Amino acid sequence: MIQSMTGYGKTTGTYNDKKISIEIKSLNSKYFDLNMRMPGFYRENELTLNKKLSKLIGRGKVDFNIYVELPPKSNSAKVNHEVVTTYFNDLKDLSTSLGIDNDAKLMELAMKMPEVYSQEKEELDPEEWKAVEVMIEEAVKNFEEFRKREGEALHKEFTGNINRIGELLKEVEKYEGERIETVKARLKSNLEEKLDSPQFDQNRFEQELIYFIEKYDVTEEKVRLSGHLEYFIDIMNNPESQGKKLGFVAQEIGREVNTLGSKANHQEIQKIVVEMKDQLEKIKEQILNTL
Fold first, then answer.
1. What are the start-end ranges of the H helices in 103-201?
2. Which among 97, 175, 242, 291 has the fewest CB atoms less than 10 Å away?
3. Are the C-beta atoms of 87 and 117 separated by less than 8 Å?
């Protein structure tokens, strides 16, 4: 069954007082385009996670985010006493030479200088990452369910468009008899005029008649178009979503519709072809968002 490339999934959990939130969003794209954001202490697993998400999600412009809210006591930022002391003494010497005496202000300035705080690197607990992976799988599951629901809506819309083109194709038959009679009348009129002409060439006329019949006959186009419509439905009902293949079939439908229009030689059939093209454009727009 077809799926949409638009998706959203989220899950939250805790591990050792850490509140962890995982969010996945996607929009349509020809390829897998991943934008990943996560805390630094998870980065060692980034490449592995990238491959895993690529396999699970397939195509789409994907935003994947892991947010971690640490408990207050876990703040690992430490004051570098030696650096602060050096800054303070340098500022003290400068202020003394300028006749300024305000140690509190100097300390405030020193604390704003570079490298005053050092961040201790937190080692990733393997058990913590296992817990995160479980949450990622849950987020992906929610994400896929969202895509399936959107895919059901696409399936319904595509089915309506394809069925409408099929109905229009049947309407063409109503005007084919009239079209043939019009052609016969025109040929008969031309024939009668040429029969009175000494330059009339029966063989040449028969050749042109055969050419005309072949040029404006739409039987093959109707058969192929009907086959493409059936194939489109078959692909939609395939267990796996195949948006690219649907796009190729839509192109083939477009070729047959265009050829039908160029051979129509009839006002009402031209109107039918215009409506067919309208339905096909709606299909093409939504195929861009089909996985």
1. 103-111, 126-195
2. 97
3. no
0.85 surpassed by pTM = no
d(CA 205, CA 203): 5
Which amino acid is located at 144 in the chain?
E
Tokens found for residue 22: 């995982």
CA-wise closest residue to 256 among 215, 219, 290, 284: 219
11: which 2 tokens?
Answer: 């899950």
Q: Which domains are assigned to the chain?
A: 7-73+126-147 (3.30.230), 77-119 (no CATH), 149-287 (no CATH)
Name the pLDDT band for 118 (thresholds 50, 70, 90).
low
Mean pLDDT of the chain: 87
What would the two tokens of residue 263 be? 């051979």
| Distance in angstroms (rounded) separating the CA atoms of residues 97 and 152 | 78
Taking a C-beta distance cutoff of 8 angstroms, is the pair 106, 91 a contact?
Answer: yes
